[in-house]
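Hi Y.,

Following your request, here is the sequence exactly as I used it, all 459 residues.
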Amino acid sequence: MQDLNVIDLIIAKREGQALDADQITALVVAFTSGKVPDYQMSAFLMAAFLRGMNEEETYAMTEAMWRSGITLDLSGIPGVKIGKHSTGGVGDKVSLILGPTVAACGVVVPKLSGRGLGFTGGTLDKLESIPGFRTRLTIDEFKRELTDIGLVMAGQTGDVAPADKALYALRDVTGTVDFIPFIASSIMSKKLAEGTDGLVLDVKCGTGAFMKDESGARSLAEMLVGIGEAFDKPTVAWMTDMNTPLGRAVGNWPEVVEAIEVLQGAVVPDLVEIVCTLGGEMLRLGGKAGTTDEGFDLAHEAIVSGRAFDKFVQVVEYQGGDVEIVRNPQRRESAAIAAEVHARMRGFVTSIDALAIGRTVMSMGAGRVRKEDDVDPLAGLVLTKKPGDRVQAGEPIARLYTRIDSHLESFSEAVSNAFEIGDEAPLPKSILLDRYSDGAWLGAQAAAELRSLQNLRPA
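Below is the corresponding structure, written out as tokens. Let me know if you'd prefer a different format.
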């Protein structure tokens, strides 16, 4: 550490040279301990952003960030522990359904989640919209819940990958967030610290995701899986479509209500498809299914039978949430419908811009621009029409919930503009774009045909 010359490392990276693992590790350790000032680390981040980082550098940065804090020791908890991570999207309430579904099938699911930022919602914000639900747990509480019920959904503590928090703060103010090696090392440093036995990733792609195009999403998925495999953690990634909001609800409490409805048997095709597919992967990695297809069936059965909902209720009760509200969401006093958006013409909904919806819901109070901003748990919207649905002029296409009455007209206009209506219904398509593991992509057509979902789609 005494021989570390940060200026030399900055110059080397500025000139496009690759650093070795020891240099990367020493730099991260020195920065986290306060021996490297922000201005020098900012210079290094920008040099790396502009000149690139190879796999060895990325893996070294990931490990250094991971080792900067604690790694949860879950070895004393019976069962195989499988984690899940989503890169975030509009209406992404998958974890609320997926965790209970997989745990109900016997795989242990430790879930450390974050808060929403920008147009993407955070699982913690959704959970905390349940009155009384505690997301701040001690490590002992975390382990006890895992042991007792096989599932926990909580927030990350400052002891988990503290280097990532410090580096992200710099990336955020230096314009270096959108860089795949940094994104991958940030995600995987925290996932490795969770102490799971395997990991399933949902890499979203489209207007409502951080990765807007397939090329970037594929590169990110490949790097994430590569990191997992490099550290002996079986990892699989699905690339999923995020051009349209997932499900019908967007916003914290509205999304919890929709998750509850699905857990109680409601058929929301895109949600059921992605939950059962990711669930199938988790059950395969957890040894409860021989194939993803078999795991899909097990996950679907857990939902249909009500076992997944029972598990969700267990988690809510264990973490102090109002179980009666969860059993009967309509009992909760919610924000009144502030506005109803109507179709301007007849035809078929051909598309809904996920980014436009996400930004509007954020402005309505459901999201935050800065991490310290408060959110309104009741704000959001429910789409009453989705792509493929027939619509008449003047028919409701969305219901808005917000306390910000002064901007209702602009909110309604933005939601209306997010809808495209045409003369012909678009062809139905899978939300599953492709699957990556063991250094290979499955192929888009094969991924879409991996499991027929016609029996799950409403007539």
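The first strand starts at residue 82 and ends at 86.

Thanks again,
Q.
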